[in-house]
Amino acid sequence: MKIENTKAQMRKGVLEYCILSVLKDDDAYVAEILDTLKDAKLLVVEGTIYPLLTRLKNAGLLNYRWEESTSGPPRKYYGLTETGKLFLNELTTTWNELQNAVNIVTRQKNTK
């Protein structure tokens, strides 16, 4: 088993949650979302994020709007819908519970 595959699967598992969290307070376009993820050391490429954004939009969690740009073509800004905000709140609760459970399990294993 290759460690890189497992690490990639772990990152993929939380990517939706991270994208929704990036959009929690403000709308953003893809380059801003990617920059935020990159700053957090979650390296994601455009080929991964576009299908994910489309899936989240089709699920009713995101909407988008076009905005003119001073430095090129119009930009598509993504934002959370009301359903997306509720979904994010549920994911946050689940994430906190999961994080606590993993911390308990890994502490127990490391202290024995």
Characterization of this structure:
- 12% of the residues are buried.
- The chain is globular, with a radius of gyration of 16 Å.
- It has helices spanning 3-22, 30-39, 46-58, 82-111; strands spanning 28-29, 62-69, 72-80.
- It has one domain: Orthogonal Bundle (Arc Repressor Mutant, subunit A).
- The model has no long low-confidence stretch (mean pLDDT 92).
- With 112 residues, it is α+β, with helices and mostly antiparallel strands.
- The two termini are 26 Å apart.
- Strands 1-3-2 form a three-stranded antiparallel β-sheet.
Please supply descriptive tags for the structure shown above.
single chain; 112 residues; alpha+beta; Arc Repressor Mutant, subunit A; 3-stranded antiparallel beta sheet
Regarding CATH, which class?
Mainly Alpha
Strand residues, percent = 15-25%
Helix content: 55-70%
Q: Indicate the overall shape.
A: globular
Total number of strands: 3
Chain-averaged pLDDT: 92
Mind telling me the C-alpha Rg? Answer: 16 Å
- Looking at this structure, what is the CATH superfamily? Winged helix-like DNA-binding domain superfamily/Winged helix DNA-binding domain
Q: What oligomeric state is this?
A: single chain
Residue runs with pLDDT of under 50 for 5 or more positions:
none
Content-based structural category? alpha+beta
What is the end-to-end distance?
26 Å
CATH architecture group name? Orthogonal Bundle
**How would a crystallographer describe the biggest sheet?**
3 strands, antiparallel
Strand order of the largest sheet: 1-3-2
CATH topology: Arc Repressor Mutant, subunit A
Q: Topology as H/E string?
A: HEHHEEH
Number of helices: 4
Domain Transcription regulator PadR N-terminal: 19-89
Pfam families: PadR
Protein name: Transcriptional regulator, PadR family
